[in-house]
Amino acid sequence: MAVARGGAERYFTRWYKPGTAGGRELCGACLEHGFQQLQHNNYISFCRICVITLAEAHPLLQSGKTIKSINYQISANCSRLQNKVSGKSKRGAQFLTELAPLCRISSTDGEEYTIYSCIRGRLIEVNENILSNPTILQEKPSTEGYIAVVLPKFEESKSITQGLLTQKEYEEVLLKRLNSSS
Hints:
Layout: H1 7-11, E1 12-16, E2 20-21, E3 24-25, E4 35-40, E5 50-54, E6 67-71, E7 73-75, E8 78-79, E9 95-96, E10 101-107, E11 112-116, E12 121-126, H2 129-132, H3 135-139, E13 148-151, H4 167-181
Antiparallel strand pairs: 1-4, 2-3, 4-5, 5-13, 6-10, 7-8, 9-12, 10-11, 12-13
């Protein structure tokens, strides 16, 4: 019997970001902390929307973790909540580099995770719903619990998947890490 796929599975391709950048570990972008990018499959469109989410292996999605707070205030002068986008050319959108922090998530056990963009592009929106209801980040990370939506530059949209893992490759790496730690 065929199982109906949800919107995230039907319309988006999952990509995972491994490794480190600049010699430092990226909480939102490394395999241990599970960054996931959903890239829209609309090949007819001139844009390739990317939805930034937590991957299944992120510590915040493991049992026993409770989110204390989510903060889009990156620095004294930069809040992702102040992102104001208008028009079809997305004027006013904050430009993000691969190392740009999107938010910081604190758990009740004292851990703090910085979630990075991991792709270059314009910040189209942040998910303000997770501020008032952080449990949806854990319950529905690939749908209603997304972190942000980023629009890469058109000329870079085809190359952003270079260096990213497919879901199968990501699962293989996780399995290897699990086997090597036991």
